[in-house]
Write a structure and sequence with these properties.
By secondary structure, the chain is mostly helical. The chain is about 85% helix and about 0% strand.
Length: about 425
Amino acid sequence: MIRTIFNKLNLSIFFKNTSIVLFSNLISRGLGLITFILLAKYLSVSTYSALALILALIITLTDLINSGLNASVVRYTAIYKAHNQSDKISKLLSTTLINAITISCVIILVVFFLKNEFNIFFIKDGNYQPELFIASFGILTTFFLSIYAGIIQGLQSYFSLFVGSVLFSIIRLILILILLFTDNFKVNHIVLMFVIAPIPSILYYHLKLKLYVPNRILYDRHILKETFTFGRWMILWSIVTIIQSKLDLYLQGALSTPEHVSYFDVATKFVSVPLSAFIALGTVLNPKLASLNALDIPKILPKIMLISLAMTIVLFIGCLISPAFVSFFFEKKYIASYTPLQIMLLGLIPYVWCLPYTSALFAIGKSSAFFWTALFGLAINTVSSFYLIPKLGSTGSAISYCIVNSLSFCLIYFLYRKHLKLCFAMQTGNSNKQ
């Protein structure tokens, strides 16, 4: 029985795809880290703080309007592919791109008219209104990149996903290096480079998806309704998760100093490298587990947990050597990032043990579990950060991150057990009726 399940999952292909995505994420995050190291090294601490807040604001807005959409695109592309419904994939691609253009234009106009308010509320020091407006166009390019990548992931074309992801990181780094060597290393130019960097990857994905690109504009409300059935909970989950992911950066600006914004952001950039490796597992695992019967999933999870164990060992090692990496790149400039970085690496340990259970919940369609877990995490994050940031600055945010991940693991495990029992009861009941 277990061998049959393994054959359905096709573990050799699974590990091959996971390796491709892992390699892709590590290269992309590594190149991204180099990019942000250059920015942090050659900009003053206060200027880097302003740039980090501008980019964080635009990323937050992009993620909010993309809330839950990417998860639905991945899931339904995989389902349509499994049923040989290429026409539905074409309609899904066209419909989501039309929505992306419409919503992005609205947000760009909002940023244009409220750029002064955004500047006062988020950045405070300095006038960065032009940079905020330029950055708002990044909503459209990033949104497009996300949609195309979601379709590619759903089709399980992981090598294409690898090329597009690495291409984006390489282009972004090259553009930043051009600014550095031409003595144009200013915030407005840097922001513009971030806006145009996704375009080559979008074009590459478009060419790879030529089979699914319709000859005319298609807007299918039935596809929208079908995907929304799953996506409504994912939208709520995504909104809460996005707010939580940027909450500490904004609270650092409000409750601490610009320097602590920079210290915390540098720590998160280093944490993003191992985090990308863990995300690679979920990227491949989600569509694979979705192809299994719900009752077969618990039998495969112990094998996947071996990967979580290996990741835990890597995190312990990383915690010990991470200060040396920060010191190598910045010497003593960001010495205050050492402790937050080490704490956040430890905080990733419960996160990696969440991954098998979250993928299982994704596969059986229990997207409501993601929302309730995220809402719980946001509540804990808000309370702990409001208390810890004024006292400990960037270290307070790191401790809050550790607390949230630990408690979220407990909740996601509880929800996994609960929903699995319900699935078992439903399928057993159906079998008895037959």
